[in-house]
Specification:
The chain has about 290 residues and is an alpha/beta fold. It is built from eight helices and eleven strands. The structure holds S-adenosylmethionine (SAM).
Length: about 290
């Protein structure tokens, strides 16, 4: 092992993990493209990388997988009709193949989560039912399905359906009997100015009203499905504590890592992203924190 004995315990966790991932003489080397004492980024396919992680290691996983909605349709952006296509990574490969993809990464997440560890999965109707079905199939215990309501969602230009104005975020734990982290008091009494539906001092409910990312979260460029920092801040505040090890297998523009770094308290973040341009965007955002 490359790490030193006198390292603090929390640094050891990352160093041990990196040496597992790096590979040995029988495996291709996979090295991080960015590494600090609290944040590590891999420009890789999570299906290739996650099998190298040790069992029962992560405290929390946030996953925002491809929605498989890039089907050449149209949507509204800044009052104009634009293509819904997000990139080749978001194209559907057909129902069976999409389900198989989700089953592969969710199974790995189950193996690498600690028994009391929790997973959050976000999605729209295109993917969330598949992911919810798989969470149940793979014996996760669903804790909540959060409705992230976007008060500033774009109108529906075709006027043939209701305007899509929410995403669903499933929250589940690996082992029903294990104790999981839920910072109840912080959720009840914390300050959430962005949310016009949250009453101060009242229990946090499962409908969260949070606007889409404001312009100052896109100063280094934007990811087509970038999540707002206040959404990830709330998720991390509710389900992680000092020193938690957090994974995002679909890092995108790095919102999870940026929120973890902003919250600090020795939280450690590992992000995996297949597209190099989004790794560059993430590094710029992290360096600004
Ligand atoms: C929905 S976006 C995540 C957005 C992110 N939550 C944010 O706030 O910026 C999904 C991301 O997963 C990446 N991706 C797709 N397939 C992947 C894979 N097999 N391994 C790693 N990343 C992948 C895509 O390139 C895309 O950036």
């Amino acid at each position: 092992m490359k790490y030193k004995k006198e390292m603090p315990q929390s640094d050891l966790i990352i160093e041990q993990l990196l040496s597992c991932i790096a590979g040995d003489k029988d495996q291709k080397a996979i090295n991080p493209v960015y590494k600090t004492s609290d944040t590590v980024l891999y420009n890789a396919d999570c299906l290739e990388l996650m099998p190298r992680f040790p069992d029962n290691y992560f405290d929390m996983i946030f996953a925002d997988p491809p929605y498989n909605l890039s089907n050449n349709g149209v949507t509204c952006h800044a009052g104009k009709m634009v293509s819904v296509n997000k990139g080749k990574w978001d194209k559907s490969n057909g129902f069976e193949s999409d389900v198989e993809f989700h089953e592969r990464w969710i199974s790995e997440c189950r193996r690498i989560l600690k028994p009391g560890g929790t997973i959050w999965i976000s999605g729209t109707n295109h993917s969330i039912y598949q992911c919810g079905y798989l969470l149940q199939k793979l014996d996760f215990h669903i804790l909540n399905d959060i409705s992230w309501f976007k008060p500033n969602a774009a109108p529906n230009l075709a006027c043939t359906t209701f305007a899509h104005s929410h995403e669903t975020i499933l929250w589940a734990k690996k082992d029903r009997k294990a104790k999981h982290v839920f910072n109840y008091e912080m959720m009840k009494n914390g300050i959430f100015l962005e949310d016009k539906m949250k009453s101060p001092g009242k229990q946090m409910r499962s409908v969260w009203s949070i606007p889409t990312p404001p312009p100052d979260e896109k100063t280094f460029g934007k990811h087509p499905t970038q999540k707002p920092l206040s959404l990830l801040r709330r998720i991390l505040l509710s389900s992680t504590t000092k020193g938690s090890l957090i994974l995002d297998p679909f890092n995108g523009g790095g919102t999870t890592g940026v929120a973890a770094k902003m919250l600090g308290e020795e939280r450690k973040y590992i992000g995996i992203e297949i597209e190099e341009e989004y790794i560059s965007l993430t590094i710029k955002r992290l360096n600004k924190v």
